[in-house]
Amino acid sequence: MPHSEHEGPLVKRQKLNSVARPKPSASQQSRIFAPYRTIGLVSPTAVPFTSVPLGNTTFQVTTSVGRSLQTYDLKRGLNLVFMTRPQTPSNITATCAWKQKVFAAWGDSREGSAQGIWVFQRGKKVDELPVPSDLREPIKQIIIFGSWLVACAVTRIEVWKTTTLEHYTTLFTMASKKHDNELTGGICTMPTYLNKIFAGRRNGWVEIWNISTGKLIYTILPPSPNYGAVTCMQPTPALSLMAISYSGGPLVIHNVLTDKRMLEVNAGTEDEPVTSISFRTDGAGAGQDGRKDGVMATATESGGDITFWDLNQGGRIMGVLRSAHNPPTQEGPTVRGGVSKIEFLAGQPVIVTSGRDNSLKTWIFDETPFSPIPRILHTRSGHAAPVTCLQFLPSDFEGAEAGNKWLLSGGKDRSLWGWSLRRDGQSTELSQGNIRKKAKKVGILDSSALSRGPTTTLDDLKAPEITCIACSLNRDGGMGALPGKQMLWQKSLSKDQKKTVNAEISSMTGWESVVTAHKDDPYVRTWFWGRKRAGRWAFRTGDAANVSAVAMSPCGTFAVVGSAEGGIDMFNLQSGLHRQRFPSKLTPAQARQLKMLQLKQADTVVQLQARSATGFAPGTGKHKQAITGIVVDSMNKYVISCSLDGKVKFWEFLTGNLLEEISWAPMTGITDCRYHAANDLIAFSCDDNSIRVVDIETKQTIREFWGCDGKINDFIFSSDGRWIVAASQDAIIRVWDLPTGHLIDAIRLERPCTALAFSATGEYLAATTEGELGVNIWNNKTLFAHVPTRQISEDSIRQIAGPTASGEGGEGLLEAAYEDEASQEDEDVTPPTLDQLSSDMMTLSLVPRSRWQTLLHLDLIKQRNKPKEAPKAPEKAPFFLPSATSAGTSNMDVTQSTTDQDQSQSRITRFDRNRAEQAFTSKLQLGAASSDYAEFVEHLKSLSPATADLELRSLTASDNDESNELLHFIRAMTSRLVARRDYELTQAWMAVFLRLHFDMILESDTLMSALAEWKKHQAEECNRLDNLVSYCGGVVSFLRSPRT
Predict the structure, then answer these.
(1) Residue 999: how many CB atoms within 10 A of its CB?
(2) Measuring CA to CA, how many Å separate 556 from each of 329, 537, 573, 613?
(3) Sorting pLDDT into bands at 50, 70 and 90, what band is 131?
(4) Model confidence over 779-816: pLDDT tens digits?
(5) Residue 574's beta-bridge partner residues?
(6) CA-CA distance, 963 to 960, in Å (whole number)?
(7) Distance CA 179, CA 567 (A)
(8) CA distance linking residue 650 with residue 698, whole number of Å
(9) 531-551: per-residue pLDDT in tens?
(10) Hey, which bits of 346-464 come out as E strands?
(11) What is the side-by-side strand order in the sheet with 416-420?
């Protein structure tokens, strides 16, 4: 039988084709943090992007971010739509988009890794291509045409069929000399040339292969042996014409059919050969008015410029898009640059470019009047160099930013980024002004600059590398802060120069909320966070030395700047004026007074007065070496500074005078500090690889943490102040518990972590890795699971895989919350569950508050729930319903049947009610016989308010004390008072009991004596609690008093 009937309930089938995610063992995961994802990666590798049209509406562009792919939709403004999972075992070396699928080649056998080609569709792996066993070279290019999939390796070409994905053949290039058969120019196809591919070699030859027969058909030789290797090939829109670029610099348009050179231009140089070519196919863009066809764009990996050519009448340069991407800098691979690929979209005046500066951009030709240089259309980018500092944006006074949505990061590429952890499309770089407009003024973007070569790039016009970030949103005005145009980063205000912005306007709209320090620069710069742009001020240190530390007051009004020579200055962010120096500058009167005190040092009375004062004269106490950290306390009362001279100094915020000092010199120097306002603690990292925690109120060191094997790169407090998280040069992130002083967790990474940040809500930990462009985000598992604070040893630290760009292997908060409890590490000691900690303590019950409050007001609730009116008969039925007689008969039948059913069920209901009453009475009688009412009280606590009210009403009195239920209930309540348990329930039950049975109690002397005993214990307990509360209130008032 094809379909058999199944009797009985269906059993849920097990899903067998799902991929079970392996659970990491306890030794391979952190107890506190779970990897989530990596943000900030767009196109960080040299692998070119690949694009595919989706109908006639949009294009999708796919880039490689290492071991996964990211797909962006052009119509949505380069919005991220797919991230591939799972990750490839090794880095991706080539990609190709075809229809709905994306092919990705990964691995390099020369480095000892496996190789393969995976097929992805909508971000998921759907297939895998078989790779020849003798392939020992990385695949660097993939193309698909017709029914063939062709992959280009270093010296060989692999062919598959697209229909079955089976391997078809391998084409080997022959070498006349060593290494001259390397395919440096890759492979390409030519329209109308069936089954033919073109391969560019190192010796300048271009070979034409028939992949169906596997034979070499023809070889195109270079015009001269001095042209060098083929670097790039691209077919033109005209049939049989192909553009071939050589490493010597020339670019030749060759007629493949006649094997003749049609056009030659010097598009590059030996140092900067052309590596990417694209042709415009919408039939416009050339000529004086842009209405002719024949536009070619060229770019090189050795520069960031894109050159546009008009190929009519011998070819000429139409324009140069300067610094479309960051060019390679003199710092080497630290700051990445160069254009990896350019491509005109088919039939569109749009060109897509990607660079090694971790950016993907689209440009459009739509300016009026005609301009041969396009304007920017969309851009998605990130840091082009490793990140150096992190800072989660704090929540403002309204809590609009929620404390964990935005993450600020500064990198070696001279940029400041704001990353949104909720939506990637909202992430943005804070503007430093119109850099391209500035470049035109200094001549960087002039056409005449092409002949002499770019000596200054666009990045040179940016602020130097950011080394420190401080922010406070209490005065941030959002998008409406200081509307209009203002000068950026004014470095000085002369006495005659009027203020550019009225203080009244800034007081109503807000002002800058972010302050940054820069490498080898004496100026601190301000930023508008709400407007995502540079601010008005650039504050210079008082001693003209380079800035070494910066801080902001919690109110958001002042910026405190520390210099490399020990000076500390404070500036007002609203007016841009200097407000204070630490130590303060002495007036002539103060200088004379200080000199008189020095002359009277022999006087014992003056010495005694000096000892009773702070001990530091005004104008003294300056640090001797570079300032490494500055903190302003939450009340704007103290400014705390630390320095490499090993001293911590506490300055008065208003006067600038030194109040107290902690000296650890010459044992150690202080390299950084962190402040936690909630617990008023400040932590210092020292050059002896230790972290010391100081209580600001007592100025005492309360904790010292050791164990870092190497320099401490960064450290932070957790959001609740219980942990200190530190990253050191030994590639380990350690977590210490402040109350116990234990090392409770450690994460060993492949490379050292350089910066850390903890979100204000405690949800995320952000970390950067040495040499990487992205920011790793970790989830805090203690938000949904218990984490033991048992100390771990250094030997138990294991290497852990960090977050990935695709999020594979990571856990969100919801996924980690439902993680199997068996995977969590159990504690050695299980805390006992006690109903009462001590017999001297009054203990409340665990019964919900609503239950005993409902019992107190049950009569009122019943009164409110009564119907206001009696039920009414229904109105006359419409004509299309049955007749009234039949309807009435039916209603009567239903009423009669309902009554019969109720009568049939009344016996069961009555039996259940009697059984409950018997349980209540029997437990009360057993408690009276044994003088232990615990079981009776637990039964009464389990009853609902209505049932408990009914049981209390059912209590009966008797002349015999053994059967007097009222007497037993009073004694049960008295026993709970003596045991000091269930205090609030005892009060509620006695209030209802007395309201129901007060008349019977007044008539019985036995009940009155039992009630008097209960009242005695009640008064004693009430007085005891009142005295304890009064004592605690007095102690708290004494501690909070300003006089103490």
Answers:
(1) 7
(2) 37, 15, 8, 32
(3) very high
(4) 998 888 787 778 888 888 888 888 888 777 665 555 55
(5) none
(6) 6
(7) 61
(8) 12
(9) 899 999 999 999 999 999 999
(10) 350-355, 359-364, 375-381, 387-392, 406-411, 416-420, 428-429
(11) 387-392, 406-411, 416-420, 428-429
Q: From CA 896, how far away is CA 901, in angstroms rounded?
A: 9
Bridge partners for 64 per DSSP: 69
For residues 513 and 473, the answer to whether their CB atoms sit within 8 Å is: yes
pLDDT at 904: 45
Which residue matches tokens 């200081």?
A: 482
Q: What is the per-residue DSSP string for 268-320?
A: --SSS---EEEE--SS-SBSSSS-BS-EEEEE-TT-S-EEEEE-GGG-EEEEE
Q: What is d(CA 47, CA 90) in angstroms, rounded to the nearest whole number?
A: 14
Separation of alpha carbons 99 and 81, rounded Å = 16
CA distance 150 to 639: 66
Q: Kindly compute the dihedral angle of the four CA atoms of residues 35, 41, 44, 47, in this order, to the nearest 10 degrees.
A: 90
**Nearest to 34, CA basis, from 806, 788, 764, 799:** 764
Please report which helix (H) or strand (E) contains residue 921, including its range: helix 884-930
Average pLDDT over residues 383-409: 77
Q: Are 852 and 55 a contacting pair, CB within 8 Å? A: no
Closest residue by Cα to residue 75 from 102, 51, 94: 51
Confidence band, pLDDT 50/70/90 cuts, at residue 101 = very high
Say which residue, 13 or 988, is predicted with more confidence.
988
Q: What percentage of the chain reaches a pLDDT higher than 90? A: 50
* Structure-model confidence comparison of residues 236 and 423, the more confident one: 236
pLDDT band at 111 (very low <50, low <70, confident <90, very high): confident
Reading the block at residue 47, the tokens are 């692998």
pTM higher than the cut 0.90: no
What average pLDDT does the structure give for the chain? 83
Per the listing, tokens 């067998």 go with 16
DSSP conformational letter for 224: -
DSSP for 645-675 reads TSEEEEEETTT--EEEEEE-TTT--EEEEEE
Residue 556 region by backbone torsions, left for phi larger than 0, else alpha for psi between -120 and 50, else beta:
left
Torsion of CA 341, 344, 350, 354, to 10 degrees: -10
H helix and E strand count, the chain = 14, 56
Sheet with 375-381: strands ordered across = 339-344, 350-355, 359-364, 375-381
Q: pLDDT digits over 289-323, tens only? A: 888 999 999 999 988 899 999 999 888 999 999 88
The total of other beta-carbon atoms located within 10 Å of residue 208's CB is 17
AA letter at 142: I
Whole-angstrom CA distances from 561 to 167, 468, 573, 578 are 65, 11, 12, 11
**One-letter amino acid identity for 974?**
T
